[in-house]
Specification:
Glycerol kinase, alpha+beta, 32% helix, 25% strand
Length: 280
């Protein structure tokens, strides 16, 4: 039995194509798919050929619906509408454009080139198209919007979603570079450092007499990173305050992160590291 096509309203079709409902109705009328009679939109023979049909609703009355696949119809979408930049992918996936480019580079689809990005052979297979900024001549790459459905990219994006970042193992949580860590938050931070190309150590012992370790250590700038969880356990809070004191008493540079910082990790950590002379 053939699978029934999913149908959407004309207003929903407009939203998916980034248009207003008024624009959508006008465009469909110009194409001859619908026509206006009195105060109602009706399907034409062309509209019926494109598998348009009617749906009856107690609230909205009778209205026209379309198969969802019509969003790719060449009469409705120009080739330019099907592609987007790293920023566009980021908006669809909920990540910053800088991080999207780093993920694409980690997948081997682009590589750094002349202050910008160059598409690789593997990236071309995924539909990447090389472009150049007309003002600055900085190269960049555009992609099919459907790339957001690519399983490899979706898997990488999950590494930066809270509660989905960590791959559980018997010994801990595994990050993208294979480090075994204690929590999903640490995995997100480790993944960010890895994609930024910043050498780092995990659970590095502080250069003091007490047996204390930092969550992360950046040897390039002699900087420590600590993530403070939201635990209210008295012993945890006591250890946290003791650790803060040790950093101060021993004049050790440290960047501190908390639970709420994970939502804007790329922007926040980049800014904090720049204060120590490191570009993330």
């Amino acid at each position: 039995m053939a699978k029934e096509l999913q149908k959407i309203s004309t207003s929903a079709l407009a939203k998916k194509l980034g248009k207003t409902s008024r624009q959508m109705f006008a465009e469909l009328e110009a194409l001859g798919w619908i026509k206006r009679e009195e105060d109602q939109w009706l399907l034409t023979s062309k509209g019926e050929f494109e598998q348009g049909s009617y749906r009856d609703s107690e609230r909205y009355g009778r209205y026209i619906i379309w198969p969802e696949v019509v969003i790719t119809h060449r009469a409705l979408v120009s080739p330019e509408d099907l592609i987007t930049s790293a920023k566009g992918l980021g908006l669809m996936l909920g990540l910053d454009a800088r991080l999207i480019n780093k993920l694409l580079a980690e997948l081997g689809w682009i590589k750094p080139w002349l202050k910008g990005w160059q598409v690789t052979s593997a990236g071309k297979v995924q539909g990447g198209i090389q472009k150049e900024d007309l003002k600055t001549a900085i190269p960049y790459v555009v992609w099919p919007k459907l790339l957001t459905q690519n399983m490899l990219l979706k898997r990488s994006v999950k590494q930066f979603e809270p509660h989905l970042a960590a791959v559980e193992t018997r010994m801990g949580c595994s990050s993208m570079d294979g480090h075994l860590l204690r929590s999903e938050a640490e995995v997100m931070i480790d993944n960010w450092l890895y994609l930024a190309g910043i050498p780092h150590a995990c659970h590095k012992r502080l250069p003091i007499h007490e047996e204390v370790t930092a969550d992360f250590y950046l040897p390039q700038i002699n900087l420590y990173i600590e993530f403070w969880g939201s635990e209210n356990d008295p012993s945890y809070l006591k250890g946290k305050m003791r650790k803060k004191t040790l950093y101060q008493e021993n004049n050790l540079d440290v960047v501190e992160l908390e639970e709420g910082d994970l939502k804007s990790l790329d922007e926040l950590l980049s800014r904090k590291l720049r204060r120590f002379g490191l570009e993330g």
